[in-house]
Amino acid sequence: MTIQQLKYIVALDEERHFARAAEVCMVSQPGLTIQLKNLEEEIGIKIFDRTKVPLTPTHLGKEIISRAKKILRETNEIRDFVVNEKNALKGELKVGVISTLSPYLIPLFIKVMKNMTPEVHFIIKEANTGQLMHDVETGAIDVAIMATPTGNKNLIEHPIFQEPFVAYLNKDHAMAKADFYEIQPGDKPMLLLLQNEYCYNAQLLDICGLKAPGPIKDQFAYDISSIETLKNLVRAELGFAIIPQLSVLNEKETELFKPFKDPKPVREISFVVSDTFSKKLLLEKMNEAIWSCLPDSIKTNLNYRKIRWNDSPYFIDAVSKF
């Protein structure tokens, strides 16, 4: 028994004529007749007396049609409920953001988002890429804002913007006074990476043309989890960093960071959700809020080279150890 079959018997009851009922249901008359026959055979009861003109429901057929109408009303109520839920700008939304983006993006758009959706309670979680992917799959969070593509077929990605990478240099660096940064051989062994941010690190290695990080020949080894710490190490001439553009948006010492030449290396930032995520309108509002707060340099940057991470040899090797 299907919803469509119930629609057919209700239409037949209202029209009392096979051809007119078929037209109402936008199906061929033979198709409608076959479906009625299948339903009657399945339940073992004749719903209509075909010997009478016009077509007339049997005694039990009347009760079945009455129940069918009730089921169809409830089906429509469920459909309306789902539509309303999808469009509801209220309730709770758990949002995860990668740690290399969260400190810079969240303060930009969250006030705008609060004004646009005053009845939504946002719970913000900061985590690394692997944790966010796991949390979306298990339902621990509703949506992740992270670098993509993930390569995970169980997740759905909605790109928001392309964020350029910039080089972060100390004042005495050979390219400190240049307009654009080009990779210097001496910088590669000094590349500073982040602890447990294998996806982010894979992108940096790709930009530098490296398959794996090399040890910094120094008295100290660095186990860092913050982009701000990377910046301070660069200022102290203890390494070289490639960082996202949003992390220098409010930087006062503008001479410390340099854009790359075109095509600029960028990372794709997307909403990542499960295939059961239903609050599409809320996602659209978040996209609108984020886009309204982005600097023009990100909105208008079209000449870029997207840096992937999910197929990086470094990333694959790193995650295989866990």
Any idea what the radius of gyration is? 30 Å
CATH class of the largest domain: Alpha Beta
Q: What is the makeup of the main sheet?
A: 8 strands, mixed
Name the poorly predicted regions: 318-322
**The CATH homologous superfamily of the largest domain:** Periplasmic binding protein-like II
Query: Alpha-carbon distance between the termini?
Result: 49 Å
- The average pLDDT is 85
Q: β content, as a range?
A: 15-25%
Order of helices and strands: HHHEEHEHEHEEHHEEEHHEH
Task: Based on the coordinates given, report the CATH architecture of the largest domain.
Answer: 3-Layer(aba) Sandwich
**Global geometry:** elongated
CATH topology title of the largest domain = D-Maltodextrin-Binding Protein, domain 2
Number of separate structural domains:
3
| Secondary structure: helix percent | 40-55%
Would you report the number of β strands? 10
Number of helix segments? 11
Class of secondary structure makeup: alpha/beta
Folded structure, characterized:
- 41% of the residues lie in helices and 20% in strands.
- It is an alpha/beta fold and 322 residues long.
- It folds into 3 domains: 84 residues, Winged helix-like DNA-binding domain superfamily/Winged helix DNA-binding domain (Arc Repressor Mutant, subunit A), CATH 1.10.10; 97 residues, 3-Layer(aba) Sandwich (D-Maltodextrin-Binding Protein, domain 2), CATH 3.40.190.10; 102 residues, Periplasmic binding protein-like II (D-Maltodextrin-Binding Protein, domain 2), CATH 3.40.190.10.
- Strands 3, 4, 5, 6, 7, 8, 9 and 10 form an 8-stranded mixed sheet that branches. A two-stranded antiparallel sheet has the order 1-2.
- A hairpin with a 6-residue loop joins strand 1 and strand 2.
